[in-house]
Amino acid sequence: MAGPVVEQSSHGRRLPFEIPTPVRAALVVGFIYLFLVGVSSLEKGIKIMGEDTQERLFSSVSNPIAGLCVGVLGTVLVQSSSASTSVIVGLVATKGISVDDAVPMIMGANIGTTVTNTLVSLGHVRQSAEFARAFAAATVHDFFNVMAVAVLLPLELVTGVVSGIAKGISEVLVGSAGSEWKSPVKEWVKKPVEWIVDLWDAVGLNGNVQGTIVVLTGLAIVLGALTLITKNMRRLVADRVERSVNNVLGKGSGAVAMLLGLVITIAVQSSSITTSILIPLSAAGVLSLRNAYPVTLGANVGTTITALLAALAASVPEALTIALTHTTFNIMGILFLYVPPFVRDLPVLGSQRLADIAVRQRTWAVGYVMGVFIVLPLVGVALLR
Q1: Residues of the domain holding 113
Q2: Across the strands, what pairs with 8?
Q3: Does any domain span residue 258?
Q4: Burial class (CB in 10 A: 0-12, 13-18, 19+), 29
C-alpha cells in the first residue's frame, strides 16, 4: 500500500501538507483586506481620542529631528517599515500629525528598516572573511539611507520639494488637501471597523480609553496581517526569487538589479526579506557588494507600495500625499546618490571601511547596531521632545 503523500517545501523540509497555490493566493487577498481594516481602525481610534489627546501625543514630532528619531525607533520596534509607514499614513489621515511633520518620520522609517539585514549579517561573525562581506552588504543599505536623509531632509525643510512633488501628484489623482475623496476601499472596510468599535463599546469603554484600545486593536491587525501576507507571499514566490537573484545579479547591471529589488519587494511585501536574501549570497562570495547594492535601492522603492495601499483605506488627500512622499523620497535618493558616478561608490566604500573595523573588533559591530538604531534615536527623542 502506498504511503501518505509528502511534499517538499521550497527549502527542502518535508511537509505533511502543502496549501495549494490558488488557496494561498486567496489567503493573501484576504490578509490584504484585513490589513486595510487595521489601517482604517487606527484612523478611527485616533479620531475617537479627540484633538486634545492627539496634540499631547504627537507634539514631540513637530521637531523634524525628533520626528526622524521616532520613525527610526518605531520601525526598529516592529521590524517593518511597511508597518510603521502604514501607521504614519493613518495618523496623517486623522490630522493627528501634518504632512510636514510626517515627512521626517517617513525618512526615519527608511533608516530603521535596514536594521534587519544588519542583524542577519551578525550570524556570520565567526568567519572573518564571510563576516566582512556580509556586514558590508548589510551596511551599504544603512549608508545609502543615512546619506539620503542627510541630503534630502535639509532640502525638504528649506524648499518642501519632496512633499511638494508628492502633493502635486496627489492633487491630480484625488484632489487638493482639506477635501475628501470617495475611496471605495474605505467603504469596503467600513463595516468591520464599526464592529470593532461596537465591540469595545459593548464592553463599556468610551472616550480616550476606547480610542486607545481601538488603536491598539488596529495596530495588532496591521502587524498580524502584514506578517501573514509576507509569509504567504514568500512561500508563493520563494523559488522564483532565489532563481532570479542568482541568475540576474551576477550580470552586474545596476538598472536590472534595481528593478529586481523593486519587483521582489512588491511580491513579498517586505524590503527586509529582499535585502536579507542578499546577505548569505554576499557572505559566500557568490554576489559582489557592487552588484548587491542596487538591489537594496530597488527594495527601498518597492516597500513604499504598502503605504500607498494603506492610503486607499483613508479618504483624505493628505494620506495619499505622505504615502507618495515615501516613494518620491526613495526615487530622489537614487537620482541624487546613485545616478551621478562621482557619488555612487560612497556607500560602498563606507560599508567596506566599517566592515574592516568590525572584523578586527567584533564588539564594534554590536555597538554600531545598538548605537545607530537604538541609542542615538532615543537620545534624539529625549533631548528634542
Answers
A1: 61-177+234-384
A2: 14
A3: yes
A4: exposed
